[in-house]
Design goal:
elongated; Elongation Factor Tu (Ef-tu), domain 3; three-stranded antiparallel β-sheet
Length: 370
């Protein structure tokens, strides 16, 4: 028992900054689901809807819909790189948030949306079957012996059912696209940007008065209220990043190291950064879509911005080959973006551990010190 307690204590000590926020995230989801479930279960103006569909399945559908909305807000906010870089730079509290895990958290939130969407669709399909058993529902008069056909009809031949099914199919593609990222980044990019189709389809999903409130009335759509603000922030960021990336950038240094490592140096007067941060590199002649992140290896005090790139993947190998030719390709850079290494100067004693190309973040730190 004491050994188990020791293992748990060490895990909390070394990994608690990642696991504790996840614990609170999952606990918050459970709490919000219970809240939304009970609100739908006890709402006086939804008495008829509960009678038509069944109180448990109807309340489950409403609770899961609330969690889908909540997670869509989070999934967009976690994609706002500039926003989180600014938050990280001015974070005033002694306890740091796991900013480096935002990408992983973004994926977890995406899976949560998919799970709650499956719960939502399953609950509503059961609602459709229950609705077929009601002889006089107030929303129509479906015949009792057509209960299966009625469920299929509601799913496939109504605007509410079609937009819900379309949203679920898009969501499955979004989640699975992460698995093909290493195989084909371009395909991943195209599929992942259908997320706005998911947001639009899901917003339309609630516009057809499927749920009526008592005595008469339509609850109306509310999903768009959750994602409109983070979407506006994200699109504003994308606009700023496009403008910022296309400011004058001059490639002044190319060194081909024998260990298949490429060193590039840039001059960009508008670019300023902190030691340990990273940037994105874009080479239009290699790909019209791909921006790849690399740690800045020069110090903030130097005039030349440098990155070291190991020729490991498909894109980096093509970049290495392109830099070997007499005519160098056009390169754009965007950034900087925050990383854990930029916080080393907040502490009196720091231990930096890196191996291979993983030493690059500490190059900038050491140059800044020396």
């Amino acid at each position: 028992m004491s050994r188990a307690i020791g293992i748990v204590a060490k895990s909390i000590l070394f990994y608690g900054h990642k696991f504790i926020p996840l614990f609170f995230y999952f606990a918050l989801q459970i709490g919000l689901f219970i809240y939304a479930f009970l609100a739908a279960f006890n709402a006086p103006n939804l008495y008829s809807a509960r009678a038509y569909f069944g109180p448990l399945s109807f309340s489950t559908a409403r609770g899961s819909a609330f969690l889908i909305s909540f997670n869509c807000l989070l999934v967009l906010f976690t994609a706002c790189r500039m926003f989180w870089t600014a938050v990280r730079s001015c974070w005033p509290f002694p306890v740091n948030l796991p900013f480096d895990a935002l990408f992983q958290f973004h994926a977890i939130v995406g899976w949560s949306i998919l799970i709650w969407s499956v719960v939502h669709c399953s609950a509503h399909f059961y609602n459709f079957l229950s609705f077929g058993n009601v002889l006089d529902s107030g929303l129509g008069s479906p015949l009792k012996w057509y209960q299966i056909d009625t469920a299929a009809t509601w799913t496939l031949f109504t605007a509410t059912g079609l937009t819900g099914a379309l949203s679920l199919l898009i969501l499955i593609g979004l989640v699975s696209s992460a698995q093909i990222r290493k195989i084909s980044y371009n395909l991943f990019w195209y599929v992942h940007h259908t997320s706005f189709l998911f947001l639009i389809a899901t917003s339309i999903h609630g516009m057809f008065c499927f749920i009526h409130s008592d005595p008469t009335g339509c609850l109306g759509p509310s999903f768009y209220k959750w994602w409109i603000v983070p979407a506006a922030i994200y699109l504003t960021e994308r606009f700023i990043r496009e403008i910022r990336a296309r400011r004058s950038t001059t490639l002044v240094k190319v060194i081909l190291h024998p260990t298949s490592v490429l060193q590039l140096g840039f001059h960009k007067p508008s670019f300023s950064f902190k030691a340990g941060q990273y940037l994105y590199v874009y080479v239009p002649s290699l790909s019209a879509l791909e921006w790849h992140p690399f740690t800045i290896t020069s110090g903030p005090e130097e005039k030349t911005i440098t990155v070291h790139i190991r020729s490991d993947g498909d894109w980096t190998k093509r970049l290495y080959a392109a830099m070997s030719s007499p005519k160098l390709p056009r390169i754009l850079i965007d950034g900087p973006y925050g990383a854990a290494t930029q916080e080393v100067f907040k502490y009196k004693v720091v231990v930096c551990i890196g191996a291979g190309i993983g030493q690059t973040p500490f190059s900038s730190v050491l140059k800044s010190i020396l």
